[in-house]
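Data deposition worksheet. Section B asks for the primary sequence of the deposited chain exactly as it was used as input, without tags or linkers unless they were present during the calculation. Section C holds the resulting structure in token form. Section D is free text for depositor observations; keep each observation to a single sentence. Incomplete worksheets are returned to the depositor.
Section A, Depositor: J.P.
Section B:
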Amino acid sequence: MAGAIETPLVRTFWRAAPFVFVLFWSGGYSFAKLGLPHTEPLTMLTLRYGLAALLLAPFLLRRAARWPGTARHWAALALTGFLIQCVYFGLAYQAMKLGMNAGTTAIVMALQPILVAALSPLVTGRPGGGRLLWLGLALGFSGVLTVILSGDSLGPSPWGAAFLALAALLGITLATLFEKAHGMKTDPAVGGVVQYLVGFAILAPAAYLTETMRIDWTPDFILAIAYLVIANSIVSIGLYIALLQRGDATRISSLMYLVPPLALLLAWAILGEAITPFTLLGFALSVAGVWLVNRQTA
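Section C:
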């Protein structure tokens, strides 16, 4: 908990947590791309959320597990789950189904820090950051643009897919601002189970009504769903919420600038996709932007 005395091991963990989050989150786009040819988006998310809830459920038996004590806290958990699991992931996966490739989706989501920085004063009542913060945000976004221009990374992006991706961006932005606005601390296991049950309860009927729910259990799909459940749903989302509860929303959101360049690096390592010098330049600009935002908001 923020403000409590922390051991050196705990401090080391929280220093490493943002980098683990970015690494695992970035890989999610490639693994989603790996799995989607073998099923449909809502079906894939329904399976993902059901498995994640089952894997997290035993942690609810911990003696130290802290349960929400008010209806307001329970409602906040449910709303955050809806915004992240249904709006963000649901619409982003639908956008990829309509033709937007994973790289384009990651690039659109990199606009989140700009939105969080612009809207945070409306939520917190505090004035916006100084010039250094905006310089960092501008540097980070220039890194994203450099990556876009480094190759044919946009792919086909029909208007419907673009609208869905922008709506998904709004979902993760609102979830970020809402988590900071209500200020209530949530046990990671409790919060995760509630969020995934909300996602499952909403998307399972949607998948049943709109999709065939057929799954081809190929090795690629099994690898993809395993990564998405463990690395994305349990580790990444848990760290993201925990980091938001410990620190500044703009600073944490600025880490999203590292996602598109790092996603391309992971695609090179995993799938053998080419990387140009401009890609590496974009990654360096994104790193510089995140450093400036962290320095301003520390």
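Section D:
DSSP finds twelve helices and no strands in the chain.
The radius of gyration is 19 Å.
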